Amino acid sequence: MTGIAGNLGRLVLSRLHRHYKITGVDRRPLHQLPQGVAHHQIDMRRKKAQDIFRTVKPYGVVHMGIMHDPRMSDKEHYTWNVMGTENLLEYCARYGVKKLVMLSSANNYGPMAGSSAYMNEDAPLMGAFAFPEVRDLIAVDRAVSSFFWKHPEIETVILRPVHIAGARLKNAPSNFLRLKAIPTLMGFDPLVQLLHELDVVEAIHMALKPGVRGVFNIVGPPAIPLSKLLSQLGKTTIPIPHPSVKPLWRAFYNLRISSFPAPEWDFLRYELLVDGSRAAEKMGFEHKRSMRDIINLFAAAGT
What we know:
Helix 4 links the parallel strand 4 and strand 5. The protein is of the alpha/beta class. The chain is built from ten helices and twelve strands. Strands 3-4-5-10 form a four-stranded parallel β-sheet, sandwiched between helices. The protein has a two-stranded parallel sheet with strand order 1-2. It has a two-stranded parallel ribbon with strand order 6-9. The longest helix has 21 residues. The radius of gyration is 19 Å and the shape is globular. It has one domain: 3-Layer(aba) Sandwich (Rossmann fold), CATH 3.40.50.
């Protein structure tokens, strides 16, 4: 399991270690491991990572070690995500891995004006047009998709969840919902899809079942207008004219006044809605947490 030391990784670990013997790979330290869990503080780009595959000979791999940090240099971002994943795919093929589950994102489809509502898994990944920083994330998704066809003997699963919301997560949606006063775009009120962090954990667990393979959108409760979501959160909103928002917010982000990257504003302007029926039909996945459960995550955190 890559990315085991992240906040979401630790949630997945707490679920999976009761069913599997887990070996984690993450260059970050991880303390207070559950009994029987091994952690190797190794970078997947390094040759030492291959030794783990050679000695452990894993049945399956859960790849969550994808970095999305707009503050990191493009070169570091690219090599970490793309080269690290290419190494991992090579080791999966070489050492007889039977199951590969990769956590991608529905954001790769990209929010754009005129995009069709409720896109399925065959929709093109257009996210880099408005948000160049995600090029390598799309490259990783495509690399694993290609691996799926090249190695039919390995049950490969790509999960594309909608915006994941979690009290401990530091991703853009969660950071946005933590803001005390939330800026919005004047004249825009898109429908948004959110997914509780524990439902993502459940989807990963279900993807490890024998016989599951393919690409799956993972969705939560029905989409809700942004204005209604913020009202139920009890948040103060600050309407901003959209022509000025990106330059202004880019300055805030560069000055570290905000942790919400400027390109993410397109998600507050255009709708990005995906269809999760394939996961329901083929995986048996259905979300268990409601929008109220998601809202309560942030209310309980005192935000």
